[in-house]
Design a protein that fits this description.
CATH architecture of the largest domain in chain B: 3-Layer(aba) Sandwich
Strand content of chain B: 25-35%
Number of strands of chain A: 15
CATH superfamily of the largest domain in chain B: Periplasmic binding protein-like II
Structural class of chain A: alpha+beta
CATH class of the largest domain in chain A: Alpha Beta
CATH superfamily of the largest domain in chain A: Bira Bifunctional Protein, Domain 2
CATH topology of the largest domain in chain A: BirA Bifunctional Protein, domain 2
Helix content of chain B: 25-40%
Shape of chain A: globular
CATH topology of the largest domain in chain B: D-Maltodextrin-Binding Protein, domain 2
Oligomer: heterodimer
Number of helices of chain B: 8
Order of helices and strands of chain B: EHEEEHEHHEEHEHEEHEEH
Number of strands of chain B: 12
CATH architecture of the largest domain in chain A: 2-Layer Sandwich
Shape of chain B: elongated
Largest interface: A-B, 33 and 36 residues
Structural class of chain B: alpha/beta
Order of helices and strands of chain A: HEEHEEHEEHEHHHHEEHHEHEEEEHE
CATH class of the largest domain in chain B: Alpha Beta
Helix content of chain A: 25-40%
């Protein structure tokens, strides 16, 4: 933990931007985390069973806890909040601390999304003024542009969903692209064999249930799948477009221009305006501002603008702030309607 | 007591028979005072060796805590163990028996599911349309979790099984299973089908030693004899 003095200065500067301080619980239901990030995320969390048999865990992340607070307190309308505290997470790297000291700030439930994105970035930049550093980079990405691109590509719907769902898991995403190139998820021989069963099952009781799936449901999906033929060359072409897209990295003021040229080159019906980005200034404070299409893959819940700030401190590059938009998170946690949310966390363990 | 070598042998099943054969071939006569069901034994004329007949899973645990010096068990059970246990165990040799594969199996009538990628879609359908988690019954929660996650299946819930896992999808306890299979017959006869890319781990019988006690007198020579 850096000096209390520094932490207080940062908190003061966030408060000065009109954010309201809130306290967050240290322990939450494990299910909230596992439902978001999957069973495998268990290896990163400190979980335990309480006297009533409920599985709880130390908060591995402050954002989820903050969104849960908004949801469970039945809050409505816009809230600008900030908090500070520890997040507890196991790491495969022994040198990493399991306790992460963070200061977070968020705007939840607002309808002015573009301006909120700007405000979160400005608040982040303002907080940085309390740190002594020589230079750094503000990297901006946008998960929404990636999803829009996928929606325009000539591939079956199930592939669109698959690629969108796994954008944040880079290794698996690359495996998916390889599979897209070879079309190996549909084996013609097996399809032929199963087709006979399909015809037989069509004549049977379609309402009967097998392991919680109705025969009708199974047949419908089978039918849809075999009607989705795709030449390997098509898959290869789509994979090439995605790979090329993910290589785009440029100064922020060129972002719209570079993206539009890319869309035109591959005849993709998309246009992006420079106003789409929260800033068009290539240099702010001591930071270079760049746009990167592949950035934003570290957390599943980001849905739009994402950013990180790395600074040079004592000749070492340190990641200091991460943030972005997560408009689905509160509804994924149980809200009936979608509630917009954008925020950032400042890492005090640098 | 300090120089007694403790050997763990599976207490039942095919694995026990095959391990006992190793001792027979090496002319090491196993003796049990209270007959075949005795869980503690020794080797004739080797007063420094104690034999303990344990569950194959427990052999891994006891090697990990150092209460066994040598143990025979399955490679699958080592890999399923917690990482801090695995680190304390040496794999000395893989034998040519006890071969089996840990696989993902689904109900055979799910004809639209051929690969783990299909399963990933089904998992999201369960979450989004049925508001439920896809439930996977297994005796291997750690290996199953790692495998499914590496293949993109993140939305699932594990149901830990203690036996007869193949029945789980048809009793409402789970939707699919992962289980160890040597010929695939049991899976097939229970109306299940192994996914095309559903192989999690190839396993076989192994001899292990506990890292903690590897310097015990006579242990190296005994291991050499059992693995020759």
């Amino acid at each position: 933990m850096k000096s209390k003095n520094l932490s207080e200065k940062i908190l003061k500067s966030v408060k000065g931007k009109g954010f309201k301080y809130i306290e967050l619980p240290s322990v939450i239901e494990t299910n909230h985390i596992v439902q978001r990030s999957g069973e495998n995320f268990r290896k990163f969390i400190f979980s335990f069973i309480d006297q009533n048999g409920n599985e709880l865990c130390l908060r591995p992340d402050l954002t989820i806890v903050s969104c849960l607070r908004y949801l469970e307190s039945n809050l409505r309308g816009k809230e600008k909040i900030f908090y500070s505290g520890q997040a507890f997470r196991k790491s495969q790297n022994r040198k990493d601390s399991i306790i992460r000291n963070q200061i977070g700030f968020e705007i939840i439930g607002s309808k002015d999304e573009k301006n909120d994105d700007k405000e979160i970035i400005n608040t982040s930049l303002n907080s940085l003024k309390n740190l002594k550093y020589t230079s750094g980079t503000l990297t901006l990405g946008n998960v929404e542009i990636f999803k829009l691109l996928i929606s325009k590509l000539d591939i079956p719907t199930r592939w669109k969903l698959r690629l969108s769902r796994h954008f944040w898991r880079e290794d698996y995403f690359n495996d998916l692209l390889k599979r897209l190139e070879t079309n190996s998820d549909v084996d013609p021989t097996i399809v032929e064999i199963d087709k006979k069963r399909y015809l037989k099952m069509l004549k049977g009781d379609k309402n009967s249930i097998v392991a919680e799936r109705s025969i009708e449901e199974i047949l419908k999906r089978f039918d849809k799948k075999i009607k989705d033929p795709r030449r390997p060359s098509k898959g290869r072409n789509v994979s090439k477009i995605i790979k090329e897209f993910l290589k785009i990295k440029c100064p922020i003021n060129k972002a719209a221009d570079v993206l539009n040229k890319f869309f035109k080159k591959y005849q993709i019906n998309l246009v992006v305006d420079q106003r789409y980005f929260p800033t068009s200034v290539n240099r702010t404070s001591k930071l270079n501002v760049v746009f990167s299409t592949s950035f934003g893959r570290q957390l599943e819940y980001y849905t739009g603008m994402v950013f990180k700030i790395d600074i040079k401190l004592n000749n070492k590059i340190k990641n200091i702030i991460n943030g972005g938009r997560y408009d689905q998170l509160i509804s994924d946690l149980g809200s009936k309607k979608q509630i917009s949310a954008v925020g950032a966390a400042l890492n005090l363990n640098y | 007591m300090k120089n007694i070598i403790n050997i763990g042998i599976p207490s039942k099943g095919r694995l026990r028979k095959d391990v006992l054969n190793i001792f027979k071939k090496k002319k090491l006569k196993l003796v049990s005072e209270r007959g075949e069901r005795d869980l503690i034994g020794s080797i004739k004329n080797k007063s420094n060796i104690k034999i303990l007949y344990l569950h194959a899973r427990e052999i891994i645990q006891r090697l990990g805590d150092g209460s066994l010096d040598i143990g025979f068990s399955g490679f699958d059970l080592l890999k399923e163990g917690e990482i801090n246990i695995q680190k304390k165990i040496n794999l000395v040799k893989k034998y040519e028996f006890g071969k089996a594969t840990l696989v993902v199996a689904i109900p055979d009538p799910w004809i639209d599911v051929q690969t783990v990628a299909d399963l990933e879609e089904i998992a999201f359908e369960f979450r989004d349309k049925k508001k439920k988690k896809l439930r996977v019954a297994t005796k291997y929660p750690n290996l199953t979790k790692e495998f499914l996650f590496s293949k993109g299946v993140t939305q699932f819930q594990l149901v830990e099984s203690l036996g007869a896992t193949e029945a789980y999808p048809f009793t409402g306890s789970a939707n699919l299973i992962t289980d160890i299979s040597s010929t695939g017959e049991t899976i097939k006869s229970n109306n299940l089908r192994i996914l095309k890319d559903g192989e999690i781990l190839k396993s076989q019988a192994c001899i292990f030693t506990s890292k903690k006690n590897f310097k015990k007198k006579g242990l190296k020579a005994l291991v050499k004899l059992l693995t020759k």
